[in-house]
Amino acid sequence: MLVKAGSLFESINFLVRKHRSAHHVQSEEISSTAIDGVYSFAVKNNEAASSPLGHDNDGDNMVVALHRGTSRELGQWDLVGLSGVSAMHGTLIPNTNKIVFLEKVEKNSNAYLPEDKSKYSWSVEYDIEEGTFRSLHTKTNLFCSAGGYRPDGTIVSLGGAEAQADIEEGWNSLRFLSACNGTKSRCDWDTRSEITLKTGRWYPTVETLADGRLFIIGGAMRGASMNSEEIGVPSWELYPPLPTNPTHFTFLEETLPYNLYPMVHLLPDGNLFIFANTRAILFSTETWSIIKNYPELPGPPRNYPLSGGSLLLPLRPESNYDPEVLICGGSTRFSSHGKGQEQCGRIKPLSQDPDWIMENMPLGRMMPDMVIIPDGSVLIFNGANKGTAGYGRATEPVLQPVKYQPWDSNETRLTDSRFTFQNPSYIPRLYHSIAMPVLDGRVLIAGSNPNANTMVLGEFPVEYRIEMFSPGYLFSDVPRPILKTETTLGRVIHRPAALSVQALRAAKLSPERGQGDGDTIENVISYGSEFEIEVEFFGGVMTESQVVTPKGSSNNYLPSKVQVNLLNGGFSTHSTHMSHRLVGLEITGYIQNPGAMDRLKVKGPRNGDLVPPGWYQMTVVENGVPSEGSWVRVLQLVD
């Protein structure tokens, strides 16, 4: 892999100089070092600063550099590295501390293939801890695709766009990336002509079902400003497929033209909440039919290109896992003069008489990235206050994130609002930006590619800088709790020995076979089974009655003093966070061990409707302060 210093670093340092005087930030310059084909990046910081994760900020070259104020209430921004490609899609690689970025085939890639320095890479693996990236190989165009995970942690990227240069068209492509079993092996994308979608899809959505299959819905047959009867793909299909897929879906005809990247969430009853335009339905995953139509969401449509965002709010045992969906923002109209909406709608889809409860953000925002963080709060990043999604259509970037607290508290009652401002970034993140919660409790922010001509800097050029936002809980006066899972949950998982992508294809073996180094130790929990984890708390001595989860009630939304949560960061692209969910587990006991780590007894999730099989970041939360995450795999154990 090679980075083009003449374009990448000159343009990035130009942007740094442009913004630091306007926003009164310290001096930063970015340089690179190449070792064994992997590029690392250093940020020259000329002012000392403190870091919530204990980095040595002595003014020398370092990967982390503070560029906005530290605050327990308002959070902190850090510049941590470069993405190499335009990070318009992103998802974490399970059981690692890495994320994969994917972009379209265009002129703005700054990563080359290691075996041929004249060819670009359109996807990279970024190491969050090391601040480095390496190039991956892709056969088909990833532009405006979707993605999810198989239960073993294999990443599935699907759909895409037209052929470009020596890259094949990706409309019906299925691409697979193994997690390498958490080893140092260098895995790569596996794309095969004999394994495809049943139909081509551009701007589809993916949601993981209770049995681990992927539900794939909607999109268009080709790129366009908005969907239409001529190009729409009003159907759904599964992977692995049903024999009769794809299935016609009239709902996607009725919601034209604003239904690209439909909003889809798996509910705890196993059915799907599906939203497009201003309409929402409950869709059965047994009969594959519509169970219920919900009231329309007030205001303009929320899907691309008006582009609001949606979340399934945290599912908690304290509230008996009663689900709620939150939809926020978007543009008022399809025009460069459209304004960012302040409106949010919140609905309980499984309640007896569901309806939307409307709230207002403190400022308008289209193209928001809404993510759940380990304490159960929602952070809303990125986007603009004028225009709409698409190339060259948005201005007035919204630099200030807001925090949304889903539960009531004295503070929310006093202010009559669940929203609070957070410290702003100084980097505009417009069309094609992403946000992703990561293991250490921060949120990774990357991307912004709002120009059709990517070689022109303009007012909002292609953005390669990666930031981390540290929420206020990382600045607590009390140390973070410590979670250890390996002793109690670790077990040997039998895997085949390492095979290259080429060897897998030649042997006609499934892409989900994996490309790892044989047997590995994985942290495993199973449905309905009780397990123990080791913990250390620093917020004072607690009794078992204070730790055990209270009996669930649909009227109780106040989080417990101590929580054990499972977080799936999902697949992030175009303000859509596919399969993103946080689920709290029931704590059934607390064992104090003087001189050693204490233990929590925890009950595994009841079924796949609540927590689909696969990999999750487990955290323990004490008084709103989470531990660092630990990768845990949820599966049905067979004795």
From TrEMBL:
It comes from the Eukaryota. Residues 526-634 form the Galactose oxidase-like Early set domain. Keywords: Signal. Residues 116-473 form the Glyoxal oxidase N-terminal domain. It holds the Pfam family Glyoxal_oxid_N. The keyword Signal applies. The keyword Signal applies. This is Galactose oxidase. It comes from Modicella reniformis.
